[in-house]
Amino acid sequence: MTKKLISLLFAFALLFSAACAETMDLAARPADLKPLERYAAWQEADGMWRVYSNETAAALSQMSAEAGGSVAYFYLELSGERATGLIQPELVFCYAGTRALNADAVSLVIDQTRYDFRTSHETAALGRMTIEVMRVPLTAEGLGALRLLTGAQKVIVRLIGDGSYAFTPELRDTYASTRAQIEGSSLKGFSAMLSELDALGVEDYALWDLNAARWQRLYGFEPQMETCALGRESADAEISLKNDFEILCHEDNGQNVRLLQELLMKAGYMQGRADGSFGDGTDRAVRAARRYIGMMECGIADRALIDALSGNAPAPAEVPVEAALTPIGGVCEARVNRCWFADAFTSEKGDVRAAGNADNTLFIAEGRVLNIVGEELTFYRQLSATLRCGDVSYPCVLVCETDAGARFDTFLLPLGEARMVVFAEIPARIAGTGDWTLSLSAGGETIDYTISGGR
What we know:
With 455 residues, the protein is an alpha+beta fold. The protein has helices at 2-17, 54-65, 140-147, 178-184, 190-199, 208-219, 255-266, 280-293, 303-309, and strands at 18-28, 43-45, 48-52, 71-81, 87-96, 105-110, 113-118, 122-126, 129-137, 156-160, 164-167, 225-229, 247-248, 301-302, 326-328, 332-342, 344-346, 352-354, 360-371, 377-378, 384-389, 392-395, 397-402, 407-409, 411-412, 417-427, 436-442, 445-452. The model is unreliable at 1-17 (pLDDT under 50).
């Protein structure tokens, strides 16, 4: 009888101590940047790196020698932060012309679908030329669109800002001019960088939102892309969008622009006279309308904007529901979504936590935490974590993001909810290898997370 009672008590203790067991996918592996360093364009400064293909280096060299007229070129560049392990593919556009575009958007037409991107804008020296450089940070979806260019013979591009410039890169054996050759060679060099990106494990990469936060810090906006299948008329049949891009933008003129202006005036975004000229006033009105409606803020008037202005906008897409938090020990609710290995991580606005030893790296797990008690939730004392690799355990540090992402803290106010990061310093040589388990404990209860994707 005594043995049975002890067995029952032991079984009950196991059930109580382990609230549940879950599996987490590895969101990013330690990146081997050595293969990228062999490219002539490799650059690294202050822990940030950039690289593009040898074909791109040759095209930019040729572009630097081009004199007179307007010319444009675009290419795939990889960039990132060595410490945090973030990898950012960027679509980069270069333009030289007789007048400034100050472009902050670009449209690409690939296989009867238009892809609109928001871009950064800067000027740079290229040989004896001063060029405008527009950078597009690619998300997983944007990278998928870019892969369509692999093997493509032709694409249509339009840079859009205070002015616009359209060009049609096309692969040919011979070109009628140096400008056509430079622009046509935009379709070369993608394969090399896509192969390097695949070698870095981009198919399993799941830190795109951290990329977005990095881009926000660097350039003031998050990656944005909109798509439109071409060939369908707007609900407002009076406005015809028959050009290659099915848009109206800066420097367009005519009856369709006048009808657009009338729509903008009727909706309260513009005043004055509908003169049929898409100038600065129309550009400001289009941007204001797009911002209010919730579209990408730029000077593009397309079918989606016209439908919205006409009261025929489609129903908004459903917002995905996040997984529920799990109660632990009666003091908090928590969830760990993902984990990865890197030498450092940051809050949204740049508070950094890093490994303290050059031979070590960090195991990093991220999720959410909610304080459900009427006092401060103190990490270590009320909520703790342990990381195990086989039979070896590593103590973990827990922090939560506070002050609108400005810093990390080790306590959370009553009823407060925040991003939570759990991290442990480990030997760098074992990162991404073996079987890992993260245990999150509070009030005598534990959630075990088994890490899948180890090698």
